[in-house]
Fold this sequence. Notes:
Oligomer: single chain
Order of helices and strands: EEEHEHEHEEEHHHHHHEHHEHH
Shape: globular
CATH class of the largest domain: Alpha Beta
Helix content: 40-55%
Number of helices: 13
Amino acid sequence: MARYFLGIDSGATKIEVSLINDEIGLIETTSLNKSGNPAVVSLDRFCENISEAIKIIISKSDIRKIHGIGIGLAGYLEGRWNNDIKKCLYERLNIDPETVIIFEDIYAAHVSTHLLGDGVIGILGTGSNFYGRCKGSFWRVGGWGHYIDDRGGAYSFGARGLSIVVRSLDGRIGYTKLVEYALDFYKADDVHKLVSKIYSSEDPKSMIASFAPYIFKAFREKDLYATKIVEEEVSEIILAISTVYRRLGCLDIPLGIIGSLYRENKNVLKKMIEKGLERELGMKIEIQDPKIRQSCASALIMLKERGFLDKELFDKIVRRCS
């Protein structure tokens, strides 16, 4: 009888769940556009969201038992939430806590691009995070949260753009196209209403991060302020990635970058990052795309840790999750 497993990519704005069995590999993937980051929303809200996402995919199949769940979690904070998450899944869905393995989302991101091999990965989504593995060693840079770090993520782009907007509106600096984009996007008539909408939001982090696409729009239109933001944020991305390579002492391992900000602005970011890395490291490094979904990568990590992963199942998952 087939055993069923779930791999979950639990991000700041979306939860993706992949259902896998050990006879076929991937059966189905579904996503829910709600926060899967317990450091951003309340733990109760997080539990509601992740339980809803699991219920959706289970309801589509006649499954009586889940034999294992791997969760790649944004806002992991050294496992701070692990016991609470296992408890809520048991209380809401009767899932055995012993079958649930939770780890930081950067590990799932790494496996999604490099499978179980060596390489460097960057996440450029709402936040940012960078991680590499080589010959048994590993190094992580960033991912310390939007309050103090996460340069190169959508929140950082959005926050810096909105700072320029309010400075322009109150007369400290000159005109920028970002002003009209912000007032139109947030449906505000002036700086007071703009600021009020942001600070009174239930999720100001997401509201600020959602302005990031307009930084790139203004950049493409050669707005000077937007250009400066993009160039400086890309410099931070290059610094983070080059630091990982240097700390590992491995310049010949591949690089992947994932995340919504990178994906939506790949035509700008890919070339800028590759050129910057060539200047920093003295060699060309081409950014690779993911090989499998991050939710499938979460399943692979869990299956390997629990001793369920053999070559045949690995090949099935990779083939069907590509």
